[in-house]
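Exam revision sheet. Question 4 asks you to relate a sequence to its structure. Input first:
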Amino acid sequence: MPKYFLGVDGGQSSTTALIGDETGQVLGQGRGGPCNHVSGDQAREKFRTAIGGAVKLAAEEAGLALDALEFEAGCFGFSGGPADKDTLIAEMFRLKKRVVTHDAWIALSGAHGGQPGIITIAGTGSIAFARNAEGKFARAGGWGFIFGDEGGGFDLTRQALRAALRMEEGWGPPTSLRQRLLEATGARDANELLHRFYTPEYPRPRIAELSRVVEQAADEGDDVAADILLEAAQHLAGLTMAARMQVFTPQDQVRAAPIGGVFKCGRLYEEYRQRVERGGNTQVHPPLFGPAAGALLEAYRAAGLAVELKGAPPEK
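Answer key, structure tokens:
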């Protein structure tokens, strides 16, 4: 009798489900809408639709009838955390074993193919997670845009705006960041730009997207922009090594995977890599798989199986 396993990544923008057999072969993949909130009847219905739709599509691709399917194990990771979601999951699917966890856990598992390691995520914000061979888990950073998130996209834009304001007021060095930010937003001056960033028109993700101007300015010789990228790389490397220190010994050979749009900046990535690898026992590698594959690997783990995934979509 074939055995089937389910992994689901439920995020703020989309949901991805993977179904695999007992050998680690991925049989089907399905996608749905966001499902990170369950407070209120409408939110719970969206949650059910997103996850149920994604799993149904994965089952159809695998040639399986979801209504008659019982999974040996399923793992579900959510960006909003697992609270209040476990009961809904239990109602939706037939699962012999069920794991409901947060998105960092499955991202870490996917990045290293279920093996020990570290991930450092730098998107709008920043955070690092690590897990050792004994399953001990650690984090560093992720304290939000007011008190943390150093090296993330929002922080890069914030540093660029601060540099533009200092230049405009005459107590900072010249930088092309001022003009680049004005052109990108249509603001008349840095003061107007600052006030726009306090309005609903510019939520944090939109502000973070403007961090691209820092890389552009640095590539064209702007020293202020180059210093901002250097400092961001230092912060991100610091998060990586802080997470490492909590669960690994200095002698352990450890893999670290950077994740997120900030690391697409070649200058920042290279500085980050050099700093992390400086001691010799930590190596930076791209993530092997995405979080949905990580969830599937954790489903196998919950059932007591150690498999090598085959046919899983690579991390983008």
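Marking note for examiners. DSSP finds twelve helices and twelve strands in the chain.
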